[in-house]
Design a protein that fits this description.
Rossmann fold, globular, TATA-Binding Protein, 33% helix, eight-stranded mixed beta sheet, five-stranded antiparallel beta sheet, alpha+beta, S-adenosyl-L-methionine, single chain, 489 residues
C-alpha cells in the first residue's frame, strides 16, 4: 500500500471528531517541546519514530496525552501501550451510539454518562480519555495487581478527572457462568433457551456456519469474570467497552514484527482468543440484559465479525452495529449490541450509499460454474422469502425482498457486516411495497476457475436499501463456503 493510499484510507476511517483527524501528531514539534521524546524521533527523510521500539511508542503516548489532553500518564515496562488516536476513535464512536435515536435514552441521571471498561489495564486509557474529553464517569476493572496499581496511579495523577473514575478489582477465583458447546453453538449452561429469549423463532445456522462455530469453540473461555460477578446489584451503565485479549497464544500475538506495543499474557491472550472472550461477554449480556444500554467490544480480526454477529442474533438482541478503526496499517473493528427496545428502524447512510458491490469466487470446486452459482444465489435468497427472477441468458437474478424477507435472510446463519457501521433491528413491522429492497445479482466468467459476482441496487432511496450491503456480504460468505476450496482456519 502506497503512502498516499494509506493516508486516504486512514482519513476515511478516522472519526471526524477525533483530534487527529485533520492534524496528525507532529513528531518534530513534539520533539522540540518535550526533550524526553527527542531521542526517539528521526527527522530524515521525514519525522518518524521506530514503531518496533516499545520505549518510543510509550513516550509518544505519554506526550500526546499530556500535550493534547492535559493528562499525566505512565506505565511500566511490558504493559500494553495504547495508541491515542485509535483509542480516541472508540470513545467518539460510543458518543455517536449514545447520541443516536436507535434506542431510547432511559438515563434519568440528568445526562450523566456512565461507562464500564472491561480490562482497563495499567494504562487506564479509556476512562482517562472519556473523562477528560467528555466528562463521562467510569468503572475500570482488571485482575492483576500490577494493572490495578498503575491504573490507580494514573487516575490519582490527574485530580481534575480522578473523581470520575473508579478502579475495581475482579475476583479471579470466581467463574460462575460456564460457556459450553451445544450442537456447535456456545450457550449459557444456566439458561439453555437463551437462543430464543425474546420469543422469536430463530432459523438454524447454515452447515458451514455450524462447522465454523465448532472449530472456534473447541477452546472455550474459562478465565476470570467479565461482567457477571463484577457488575454490582442495581448498577446501571450507559455502555461497556473492551479491548479484549486478541490472541489464543503468545506466539500468535507476536506475528506483527512492525510494531511493539508491549502487553502481558493476561492482556494479550486467552484460550480461544477474542472469539471465546467476546462470546463470554455475549453470554453475560443475556443475563444482564438492560443493565447496559450498549454492550461493545473492539475486535482484532474482521473474520470474527460474522461469527459473533450470528451469535448475537441467536440470543435475542434488538440491535447490532459495527464500525472500523484504522491507524496507519492497523485495522480494528468495533461491535456493539443492545437488548433495549429499538426506538425506530434505522440503516446507516454510509451503507445505503453503496449501490454497487462485488466479490470474486476463486478456487472453485469441480462442477461449479456460472450457472450453478446463479442457481445457488436464487436458492439462497428465495429461502428467506424473497422473490427471485432468474435469467439464464444474461446470467442475472432480479430480487425483490420485503423488510421481513431481509431479516429472515440475515438471521438464517452467519453474515458479514460492512465496515461502515451497518445496523439493523429485529423489531417486527408491517412491510409496505415502497419499502421493498430491489436489486440484481450478475455472474461473470473470469479466468478459468474464477467468477465475478456483482450486485446492483435498483432504488437506493427505499427504506430497506441499507440492508443491501448486509445481505450481499452474507451471500458472499455463503457462496464461498459452498463453492470454493476455502479452509476454515
Amino acid at each position: 500500500m502506497t503512502r498516499n493510499k494509506r493516508k486516504t484510507r486512514e482519513a476515511l476511517t478516522i472519526h471526524p471528531r477525533n483530534k487527529y483527524a485533520e492534524n496528525p501528531p507532529d513528531f518534530a514539534l513534539l520533539a522540540s517541546l518535550y526533550p524526553s521524546f527527542q531521542p526517539f524521533v528521526f527527522l530524515h527523510p521525514r519525522p518518524r519514530i521506530e514503531w518496533t521500539d516499545f520505549n518510543a511508542t510509550r513516550e509518544l503516548t505519554r506526550v500526546l496525552l499530556l500535550h493534547d489532553h492535559g493528562l499525566n500518564w505512565w506505565i511500566p515496562d511490558g504493559q500494553l501501550c495504547p495508541t491515542v488516536p485509535n483509542r480516541s476513535n472508540y470513545i467518539h464512536w460510543l458518543e455517536d451510539l449514545l447520541s443516536s435515536d436507535i434506542i431510547a435514552n432511559t438515563n434519568s441521571d440528568r445526562g450523566c454518562v456512565r461507562g464500564f471498561d472491561i480490562g482497563t489495564g495499567a494504562n487506564c486509557i479509556y476512562p482517562l480519555l472519556g473523562a477528560s474529553l467528555l466528562g463521562w464517569s467510569f468503572v475500570g476493572t482488571d485482575v492483576t495487581d500490577v494493572a490495578l496499581e498503575w491504573a490507580e496511579t494514573n487516575v490519582k495523577s490527574n485530580p481534575h478527572v480522578s473523581e470520575l473514575v473508579e478502579i475495581r478489582k475482579v475476583d479471579s477465583t470466581s467463574n460462575t457462568l460456564s460457556t459450553e458447546l451445544h450442537d456447535g453453538v456456545a450457550v449459557n449452561s444456566e439458561s439453555k433457551n437463551s437462543d430464543d429469549m425474546d420469543g422469536r423463532a430463530v432459523g438454524p445456522p447454515s452447515p458451514s456456519s455450524s462447522l465454523t462455530e465448532t472449530v472456534y469453540l473447541e477452546k472455550r473461555y474459562h478465565g476470570p469474570p467479565i461482567l457477571l460477578d463484577v457488575v454490582k446489584d442495581g448498577e446501571k451503565f450507559d455502555f461497556c467497552m473492551c479491548n479484549p485479549p486478541f490472541f489464543a497464544s503468545m506466539d500468535e500475538a507476536g506475528l506483527n514484527p512492525k510494531t511493539s506495543c508491549g502487553g502481558t499474557l493476561q492482556e494479550m491472550v486467552c484460550p480461544g482468543g477474542e472469539r471465546a472472550f467476546i462470546s463470554r461477554m455475549i453470554e453475560d449480556s443475556t443475563v444482564l440484559k438492560q443493565t447496559f444500554r450498549w454492550y461493545t467490544s473492539m475486535i482484532g480480526k474482521k473474520s470474527n465479525l460474522s461469527f459473533l454477529i450470528s451469535k448475537l442474533w441467536k440470543v435475542g438482541v434488538t440491535v447490532v452495529k459495527t464500525t472500523e478503526f484504522v491507524q496507519g496499517q492497523t485495522s480494528r473493528w468495533g461491535l456493539a449490541w443492545s437488548f433495549m427496545p429499538a426506538a425506530r428502524k434505522i440503516i446507516s447512510t454510509h451503507v445505503t450509499n453503496k449501490s454497487v458491490l462485488s466479490f470474486m469466487l476463486e478456487g472453485l470446486l469441480p462442477r461449479v460454474n456460472a450457472m450453478s452459482i446463479l442457481q445457488s444465489i436464487e436458492h439462497f435468497l428465495s429461502t428467506g422469502g424473497a422473490s427471485c427472477k432468474l435469467n439464464t441468458s444474461s446470467f442475472t437474478v432480479d430480487i425483490t425482498a420485503s423488510e421481513d424477507h431481509c431479516q429472515a435472510i440475515l438471521k438464517n446463519g452467519a453474515y458479514q457486516v460492512d465496515k461502515g457501521a451497518g445496523c439493523v433491528t429485529v423489531k417486527e413491522s408491517e412491510s409496505q411495497p415502497s419499502n421493498n429492497l430491489c436489486f440484481r445479482v450478475s455472474v461473470f466468467q473470469q479466468i478459468p476457475g474464477t467468477l465475478l459476482v456483482k450486485g446492483s441496487l435498483h432504488h437506493s432511496s427505499s427504506a430497506s436499501a441499507g440492508m443491501f450491503s448486509l445481505i450481499f456480504h452474507r451471500l458472499e460468505e455463503f457462496l464461498k463456503a459452498e463453492s470454493c476450496r476455502e479452509k476454515v482456519s
